[in-house]
Design brief:
about 375 residues; alpha/beta; Nucleotidyltransferase, domain 5; six-stranded mixed sheet; 6 strands; about 10% strand; Homeodomain-like_sf; RNaseH_sf
């Protein structure tokens, strides 16, 4: 296929035609406009045949699909976001007798803002836990803003001695993929790691406890005995606080429940599989980012640096995290409304445009294709 010729602006074409109408020769026009004689000849020839200076409307290849076919393709992709363009073209050909290319399907998707991207990974939440999450979100949405100021958020997290479990971005060329400056050295099992327990409120961070062995219910109760009450007293709370921990079996064991009840500690009812609603997860990320400037040589040094950086976390960071909780709850409800609206939209969108005069499949074929 020959390369596309350079297309000149409408102003330049207009200038050439004006000189032509004034009686100038093609040689004179080419000299005045700094164009070749062949280009001037082509512009004049086009003007004589079309009486038009600009491009004619409808030039180029005609659209392969009709408006109804476009809606069919787009609806199919909206209903199943994992469906490939190849499978859509195969279904169109097998069920409706429509032969189009995969590129056409991709272009129709681009027209409504759908582009092929790598799917983001997030924890799986089953139907029962989704209902619990929605119930929690609706209950918490009615709480006043000051309610979140009295929550003591807690959780455990792991920090690797050698490298991070997350992604590290680098600038490199195509040939530097395995260059020393563009790679992250790794060792088996991360070279060792440190598990910590921590808590925080809007008023500040509590104690960061470094675990020295695998945690069970008895060890978790010991951690709470030695750190939770001390952290609460440090932050200036009396008994007017609500303790938050997730539904890990160690957290919900009878030993821990009895200790919390004995000490009169109120616990926030937490839905399962909802770590995204816990602001301390973002605090762990902030702590890991602060640790990137350090290069500990052993687990003892790593634990010491973690405690030091934990104590340096600014109050403004904590206030921002706590104030973001209502927004996270609103996003949970918005996601649920979006899913329900998609279901209703699909049922309403099964309309067939019979006004087009192009040979189109019957409504029965469309329903068979869609379902």
């Amino acid at each position: 296929m020959a390369p596309k010729k350079k297309e000149y602006s409408t102003d330049l074409r207009t200038l050439v035609i004006k000189h032509f109408l004034n009686g100038d020769s093609q040689r004179e026009i080419a000299k005045k406009t700094l164009l070749s004689r062949e280009t001037v000849r082509s512009m004049i020839k086009k003007y004589k045949s079309t009486k038009c200076i600009g491009n004619l409307f409808g030039r180029g290849r005609k659209r392969k699909t009709t408006a109804t076919m476009d809606r069919l393709i787009q609806r199919k992709l909206k209903c199943n976001r994992r469906k490939s363009s190849r499978s859509v073209t195969a279904e169109l050909q097998n069920h409706l007798g429509i032969l189009i290319s995969e590129s056409t399907v991709q272009r129709r998707a681009h027209e409504i803002g759908l582009f092929g991207r790598v799917a983001r990974k997030k924890p799986y939440v089953n139907k029962i836990n989704r209902i619990k999450r929605l119930k929690y979100a609706k209950e918490m949405l009615t709480k006043p803003l000051g309610f979140w100021d009295n929550i003591v958020w807690s959780d455990e997290s792991k920090f690797n001695l050698f490298g991070s479990d997350g992604k590290i971005m680098v600038w490199r060329t195509r040939n530097e993929e395995f260059g020393p400056k563009c790679t992250i050295p790794t060792v088996t099992y991360g070279g060792g790691s440190v598990m910590v327990w921590g808590c925080f409120t809007k008023k500040g961070v509590g104690k960061l406890y470094v675990l020295d062995h695998i945690m069970d219910a008895l060890y978790y109760r010991q951690i709470l005995e030695e750190n939770l009450l001390a952290s609460v007293n440090k932050l200036g709370f009396d008994n007017n606080f609500i303790f938050m921990h997730d539904n890990d079996p160690k957290h919900t064991s009878g030993l821990v429940k009895d200790w919390l009840k004995k000490n009169g500690i109120q616990v926030l009812q937490w839905p399962s599989s909802s770590s995204d609603l816990n602001p301390i997860e973002h605090l762990w990320d902030a702590l890991e980012n602060r640790m990137k400037k350090h290069h500990p040589k052993n687990k003892e040094e790593l634990a010491m640096l973690l405690v030091n950086e934990w104590e340096k976390i600014e109050l403004s960071v904590l206030k921002t995290l706590v104030s973001s909780v209502p927004n996270d709850i609103n996003n949970t409800l918005a996601s649920a409304r979006f899913v329900s609206s998609i279901s209703s939209t699909i049922s309403r969108s099964l309309e067939y445009d019979e006004s087009s005069q192009v040979n189109q499949p019957s409504s029965f074929d469309i329903l068979d294709f869609f379902y």
